[in-house]
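Two proteins follow. First one:
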Amino acid sequence: MGALPSYCASRYVQPLREGGSLPAVVDTEGGLFVVKFRGAGQGTKVLVAELIVGGLALRLGLPTPELALVEISSRFGRSEPDPEIQDLLRKSHGVNVGNRYLDGAFNFDLSAAGSLVPSDLAARIVWLDAFTTNPDRTARNPNLLVWQRQPWLIDHGAALYAHHDWASVDGERTRTPFPLIRSHVLLRQSGDLTVADRECAARLTDDAIRDVVSSVPDSLLVDPAGGANDFASGDEARDRYLRYLTERLAEPREFLREAIAAQEQVRLEPPLHLKARR
């Protein structure tokens, strides 16, 4: 993965008001990106999760839009008429996080596009979300796009929620299962999770995880104004994320056991009607 590309924002194109963080399509010298802003109410740890989980997904070969760092200057967006957006941009000077904009993509719906997700791919997505404790891949909020007849993973800001309270994260909590995997939109149709575990764990070597974590800039890891005030330096923060992820990946993996049990249980239940899923 290496260093992430970094671009300067040149034009605010349009807000995406589906999420509470008010991301936006932004033009840069590298093209269009969907940018999440450091000045949004969730703070910079959401951006750290975006980079780490998105980076892990790319390491696993999962379809994920290109990641980039997007620099917002003090001059950017001054002509934007919406005062809410103006305020957000004023609080977001510096490094923000972008995903390549997939022009023409549409939101995933299981009943309409479930056949586009092979069972082995579904299993690897379930595995990643269990590993990274991502609660936001449900039928109500799948955080998947369909583009060029393929699903694409987006929006990982809610994952790695242990990092919101590092002081309480001991060895037991690091290795805890993830019961919320039971609500995963792809759990029922996912294939053999044991096979997915073997394949994914083999790809996420210590060096691979270290490479992903090293791509997160200091300004997001240490940002008291944005809620990232646990560590004195970026290196100290990166070491903590690396330790958390490598310890969580060590065998036996409780999150895998929980996911397999949840999959077995879900398959015993009748599928929910569309209205019930919503």
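Second one, unrelated to the first:
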Amino acid sequence: MKIIISVRQILLLTVLSAVFSAATVTGIHSFLTYGASAATEEIAPTIAAVSDPATATDEQNNVEVYRAMSPGVVFITSKGATGRGGGTGSGSIIDKQGHILTNDHVISGAARISVSLGGSHTYPATVIGRDPDTDLAVIKIAAPASELTVVPLGNSDNLIVGQKVLAIGNPFGLDRTLTTGVISGLGRTIRARSGRAIEGVQTDASINPGNSGGPLLNSRGQMIGINSQIYSSNGGSNGIGFAVPVNVATRIIPQLINGGAVTRPRLGVTTRSVASLQGQVKTPVEEGALIVNVAPNTAAASAGLRGIGETADGAVVLGDIIVGVDGEKVSGGDDLTKILDRKAVGDTIQVEIYRDGRKMTIAARLSAAN
């Protein structure tokens, strides 16, 4: 049986959509973004200077990780076109060619960027690639390889709450400061300045203005996150910091270096959270992403996914509700965005939907976003 909603309900849906968008903006402003173990599968090389954390004391581990990795954490200073404004942040050297990973907001709008390796070793930097949607960027300096300490990229897929982490950065301009803590939450939704959802790692390791772009390390000295945001009411650290998972960076770094930007796969749907409509519009499920519109000439259109429609007599028909992709649960649009971010152009995904009250799965081959 088709699920039909009245014209009054569709108007209400439009109003709710606007409210939903406003709530999203409010959520963005609640996060202050600054210019702001054995559990990890080892895909990075073992660092000889760092003892096995299982056999070292906590103090010894802190000292060894800091000594080994702090030379690879740089101090970034940006200036505007007039020489005024700008800010400071942190970054990690990721190869011997001088590429540095940092936050996009650290270098956004900068006319001039300088990078300090410590002491008098300061170099001008060039922007190689930016991705505002993940708040990540790659810059490059022309420094001798002998001066470059590479911070190895670890794996953020197998992190666990309670796992020890260490943050190195330049809070308030105090270069190469170490703070320690644990992973205090996983799967947190944070937002880039573009408003796009990012799956964040939460930590209680102190992160302050100037830490942005610096590495969040595991006890083996491998980078498992890029410190990006803090939750604060007063501009200081309240023990709630967020990092972009390193595996997000691993996926996009090659694109940033080779092409300067990221090409993302696109499904081609506009959605609204089903949960936000409860009590207003009758739906067959309480969670999911309701398809409001399907863009023409997209993967969704080719696959036959449906947005809100209208019958011959003028009644409005509810669109498909996405509840899963490739076996992963979709509770709303943010879940869909995070799942698609892990896909590539040309991938075929299995989209689990409710249509006319019945559950079905539709295959869609992802196209490139415009």
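SUMMARY FIELD: The two ends are 36 Å apart (CA to CA). The CA atoms of residues 9 and 130 lie 41 Å apart.
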